[in-house]
């Protein structure tokens, strides 16, 4: 009895192992094309790029693309959620709890709106566009960010009955008597199916791309004001970069100022500047630094919007802080001795030259 | 071109469908935050705060502010912003008792009040003032609400900081050219006419800000 059950048991084990190997679950990181250490931002970026390519509407009748698209949706749903990602990292796909919270169409439609080209049908009346200033910090321009917004708007829903639509003024001719007519103005309307406006909400996501510039716009088609007889307008986010207390932006370059002491200006110094993402930029100076001197650090500026691998420069302008207390006689003698090489100059000249 | 518009219609339909599904997921933001653009409904009279490029014919002669019955009018959007000198970061919930500015989205003028008489009821005139969102200290309003933060479903009061009058509507209607629009004014005493509620809009959620962690805190050397 015992040997036979052992055989059966080992066969069952083997089968289970085989089944498990086949259904071990998908490699979500591979599907998105990101390393296991990818940040949530990198995951979102990768998803957006692939989602556009693989969307079924763009790959009509390609069943492989359909499968890849649904894999992509599943991968994004898990890796974009901290909890689910942790579980997946430990236990794989099968270790995940059952049930999906949102359909893939849902996830896709809340961020992909802006890529839809506009339908130029002029005959359909359109609701107004909404243009909204989106304030972004220089840190966000440097590193990029995602902004979630909730859009609450009225949506036309079918209602029972009919309503008047396309109302216009028309001239009516009525006969008052033989050969006598009267023309009056009348408001004439058509009958349309009745609609009512119901407020609905959806979450949208705007990406603040690295290197984005002032007044660049991110449109969301159809998220503007509705029109009861036609189509809704668009919602456009217009970027407004806020002033920064440390850095000034000029194109892709960043400018900043540093005040150094007179001693540092004369004997040299070593310092660090904390950049927009927290990394430190190191400076060593062993020569004399004149007030107004500039130091250029290539590659420490902002990423270029069109190619984030290209960066501008960081330009540091130094100004010198002179000592506040007056020097006493001994110090003055010491100074004269130390800086003997530089004689009294006292050159008089016109510094304004017409300004 | 035909296939493209067909594709668009397909996408649009699927989007409408997913719209209905996403309804059940509920709202993910319960507070009104800085940077949000909202429509404000006067609860008693069921009109939305509105402005347009039409000036008062009397009083200050500044841009008029009215109440409209229409739900879909892009001239009823107001941007919730901090005051000058006390910038309110995008996505920060507005506290009850906080001073804010309400900037009319389409004209860039701020909700404003001053000691002028309103044209129909002779209450305190409320206008839209400034350029590109910058006006003066009479643009400041205090949000009065129950708890600690301005909740979206809550009816709140707006008290003009300098004159201490409350934004209200009492039902007087204009004739041409803004037929049917109600007068919006400020009154010294709060009443059922002074309650407002946010309705449609675009609400900013707080974001994780990239960058060095909260500036220059003390460096830990004990580790």
Domain unit count of chain A = 3
DSSP strand content of chain B:
25-35%
What's the CATH C level of the largest domain in chain A?
Mainly Beta
Number of helices of chain A: 9
**Superfamily at the CATH H level of the largest domain in chain A?**
Urease metallochaperone UreE, N-terminal domain
Shape annotation of chain A: flat
What CATH architecture label of chain B applies? Trefoil
DSSP strand tally of chain A: 11
| Helix percentage range of chain A | 25-40%
Report the count of strand segments of chain B. 12
Strand content of chain A: 35-45%
Radius of gyration of chain B: 20 Å
Structural class of chain A: alpha+beta
Summarize the biggest pleated sheet of chain A: 4 strands, mixed
Condensed summary:
Chain A has helices spanning 2-22, 28-32, 40-54, 63-79, 82-91, 104-112, 138-143, 262-267, 329-338; strands spanning 130-136, 145-177, 180-208, 217-220, 235-241, 248-250, 253-261, 269-274, 280-285, 294-303, 311-321.
Descriptive overview:
The complex is a heterodimer of chains A (355) and B (223). By secondary structure, chain A is of the alpha+beta class. Chain A folds into 3 domains: 25-95, DnaJ domain (Helix Hairpins); 130-241, Sandwich (HSP40/DNAj peptide-binding domain), CATH 2.60.260.20; 248-339, Sandwich (HSP40/DNAj peptide-binding domain). Chain A has 9 helices and 11 strands. In chain A, the strands form 4 sheets. Chain A has a 4-stranded mixed beta sheet. Chain A has a 3-stranded mixed beta sheet with strand order 1-5-4. In chain B, 40% of the residues are buried. Chain B has one domain (33-221): Trefoil (Acidic Fibroblast Growth Factor, subunit A) (Trefoil). Residues 16-26 and 214-223 of chain B have low confidence and may be disordered. Chain B is globular. Chain B is 10% helix and 34% strand. In chain B, strands 1, 2, 3, 4, 5, 6, 7, 8, 9, 10, 11 and 12 form a 12-stranded antiparallel beta sheet that branches. Chain B has one helix at 2-23; strands at 37-42, 47-55, 63-68, 78-81, 99-104, 110-117, 124-129, 141-144, 157-160, 166-173, 182-187, 196-204. Chains A and B meet through helix 6, strand 1, helix 7, strand 2 and strand 3 of A and helix 1 and strand 12 of B. Chain A: It holds the Pfam family DnaJ. Chain A: One of its GO terms (cellular component) is endoplasmic reticulum. Chain A: This is DnaJ homolog subfamily B member 11.
